[in-house]
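Researcher: Last one for today. Full complex below.
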Amino acid sequence: MSALKTLPNLETLKFDALHCKIPLALNEITGLSAISLETDYNDYFAGILDSLVKMVAISPRLTSIDFLPGEPESSTEMSPTHSLHHLLKHIPKNAAPLLLHHLGMDGCFLRLDNITIPHLKSLKSLRLTNIVDPSALSDYDAKRQKQVGASTEHLWATLVHEGIWLDDIVCENVSPPFLDYLSAYSGLKSLNLVPDKWDKGSVYSDTQAGRFFANTGPLVQHRGTLEELVVRPKNEGRWCFDMKAPPESLAACPRLKKLGLGVLGAQIKCQALVFYGANAMVRKSRPKMLS
Amino acid sequence: MLIESFQKALIDTVVANLPHLQDLEMSPADSVTRYSPMAGINKQEERGFVHRRMIRAALQYNARLLDQHLPSLAIRLKGAFGSDALFKTTWKVTDAGNDLSLVSVASDK
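Model: Here's the assembly. Have a good evening.
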């Protein structure tokens, strides 16, 4: 750690601090434009977080933050310090806002309001996983969490309102406000979805999928620019590729270089098992299944 | 060359229309059916486990056939395999202990 602060040209720092057993004095490093910190909850977590917050406050050139403390064991016990609000709280009030191009958060609260939005006006890349919605907390006193957190539905609606249009999105749980957001502009280059991580039922999920893949839906809105589309559904349904009704909108995105699809088990399972059973040669070279 | 309905649909309706496609990833869902309190969690997990094993084998089979038809495409299986498995022009599968090792062919490109 001591050596890092002696590197005058250091601009990007990626820390995998999982199981870290030493304090990280990140606040001694200045001049960074990108910081990525992946960590977990251990005895040093509070100190690491504190040093990160102080580092952000003295890094006006920061354009990229990844704060990945991971999914909490219990969101009801999660501290409001796991939030973008907390990361930005030591930035002097008279300082110019950050020009963040990328923000990645995992296992955090996130609320877009007059404290956070000024730093996100230049945002082009957003990676959100395990964002905790405090309104869903059963804790009788989640007041502090609600000050720094909101639903992802609120997030997408706010991005539309603020006119912040992204090139690169990683997110979970597709909702109507997310589809509204995608429908409101064009220019998306990369979209990576786990569309139904929080199960709201097949009717809800299939409805969102139907709208997303529709011939005049949000996906087609980005056909001129989209190069990567990865959809990893947790449950089988309309988010999966259906060979009986393949979505035409996929073929309408000719710039795609990478495509990720979920599959419907029934459509690939039977033919494969029949084949394995009938062909000894293939059976012989069949990969061993993991247990 | 053997081609079946799933691969044909995927090629005809999607891949054939995407001239720049380099990387095709297929992932199985965690479960066929959603969790139902009526079914009970143990039954649900048991079904999911069996489902994942079967889909895993079926996906490998399908990827192998797709790879024969689309030799320039990297075919990646994701999700149920523990780690990325990358398939391309040359399909190589080795068993190492209880683990499945699929040779990365990214360097072939």
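Confidence is low (pLDDT under 50) at residues 278-291 of chain A. Chain A touches chain B through 49 residues (CB under 8 Å).
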